[in-house]
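Please produce the structure of this protein holding zinc ion.
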Amino acid sequence: MSFSSEVKSELTAIKTEKSCCMLSELNALTQSCASMTLHGHGEFSISYATENPSVAKRIFILLKRRLEINSNPRFHKAARFGGRRVYIIQLSPADSRKLTYALHMLRKDESGEVFRGIPRHAMTRKCCQQAFLRGAFLGTGSIVMPEKDYHLEIVCGSDQKARVIQQVLERNDLSASLMSRRSSSVLYFKRGEDIAELLSLMGAVRARMRYENILAQRSLRENVMRVTNCDHGNLRRLLTASQKQMKAIETIRNSGHFPDLPPDLQAIIRLRRQNPEMTLEQLGDLMTPKLGKSGVYHRFRKVIEIAESIENEQTSKDE
Ligand SMILES: [Zn+2]
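Below is the modeled complex.
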């Protein structure tokens, strides 16, 4: 499974309960996956197309729960997707009308019904903004494994759609770059920290953890490359110790026991993750109050002991 599919399957498993957020997510999914067919006499129908089965299921569930729209997803091999399998959700004209009203794409005034190009939806609440970003990524987003490159992108049909997503990102202190590729506008991120932040905004908690672990390991390696005029023996010792600590930290975080640790251990873990290349003295200097080398060493001893006991517990469970 690609990393994109992995993130998407985590996102589509998030429980949808609040009706405001369901609409925001549908809004973004409609902008990225839906198309409209006009039948004349003011009749039209909307259909969604996606290659990802869990995204198709998500759209189906949101339509049903939020708008009581029942639609049967079906799939077929479409030439425009390079012969790949595509899942289609086709709405009846009546349901299409219901959806466009709910999304404020269609409204009534004196002269009759007026169409807006894209949904207008204030999304003042944080929860709805997050749901909107999730929908946008589920629709046309992709992410590269951080071992290879730092890259997350969302393909937008038009500049206007890209700007709407950009505004929502900005309200959450994230800024994406914009490029054009063929006839699309593409929003993208190139900084690992921003990508990790967006993952957690969208609700992909597991993916964020995995991403950050790899980020920390990469920054450790890159820092080592940078240090050239350093005593090799010392450097190796420092690295082995730091790697051992990072491995223990990862075990604890993956086990979910991190919040149970005493605050002094949590603090040293946070510092180490941010500064994998630092010596114990340097880490101690960053603490408030400052802590000597042996104090820092003892805390890591405890961290490693805890990780070992978690590992022992896990292997005894597996047996
Ligand atoms: Zn909401």
